[in-house]
TrEMBL record:
Protein name per Swiss-Prot or TrEMBL: J domain-containing protein
Lineage: superkingdom: Eukaryota
Species this protein is from: Magallana gigas (Pacific oyster)
Positions of the J domain: 85-158
Gene3D superfamilies per the UniProt record, alphabetical: DnaJ domain
Biological classification of the source: Eukaryota, Metazoa, Spiralia, Lophotrochozoa, Mollusca
Pfam families: DnaJ
Length: 189
């Protein structure tokens, strides 16, 4: 780094010579080193890792369990996308309405990396033509669940939602919060 030149009325002078370089030992550490180490261990490319880490940086504590649903996906008819279980298509059927936006986004990115038609062609798998491919269902599922208004509408008619309410009897009156607490939690969505 150089100093700015002196003004016209000032005089510049050098008072000491440049010092010689000094060897410094250091230990690799930090999140970037850890990311590099994990990429090398799992043999992932930088682009694969950056897609996964971009959503994990937004929410470090939100982990999702991906479900292996290849058979479900291959059995989907893209023309019947309105009847499909969008949470199951994205592999987050256990979370359902409790899934956060970041979890949905992460699940979608993961599905794109696994099931995009170009990726499947590269692996030598059969790919349907345009609208006949099950990847269309993945895209539709994210269009619904990735939009707050559409997701709220979809969740309001979710057939897998537990809508049962315990009976009002003496036991439920004595332990009101214990009995009805889970019901309020489910319906607070």
């Amino acid at each position: 780094m150089f100093l700015l030149p002196a003004t016209d009325d000032a005089v510049t002078s050098v008072t000491a010579p440049l010092s010689a370089p000094v060897k410094v030992s250091f230990e690799s550490a930090g999140r970037w080193f850890e990311a590099l180490r994990l990429r090398r261990r799992h043999k992932h490319s930088l682009s694969h890792h950056s897609l996964q880490s971009s959503s994990s940086e937004e929410s470090d504590n939100e982990e999702i369990e991906e479900e292996d649903n290849l058979i479900l996906l291959q059995g989907l008819d893209p023309k019947e996308w309105k009847q499909q279980d969008h949470y199951a298509v994205l592999g987050i059927s256990k979370l359902r309405y409790k899934a956060t936006e970041n979890q949905i986004k992460k699940a979608y990115k993961s599905m794109v990396l696994k099931h995009h038609p170009d990726k499947r062609k590269a692996r030598g798998l059969k790919v349907g033509d345009g609208e006949d491919d099950y990847f269309t269902c993945i895209t539709r599922a994210y269009e619904i669940l990735g939009n707050k208004l559409k997701r709220r509408s979809y969740d309001s008619v979710d057939p897998q939602f537990d809508n049962d309410v315990p009976p009002a009897d003496e036991e439920s009156k004595k332990n009101f919060f214990k009995v009805f607490g889970p019901v309020f939690e489910r319906n607070s969505r």
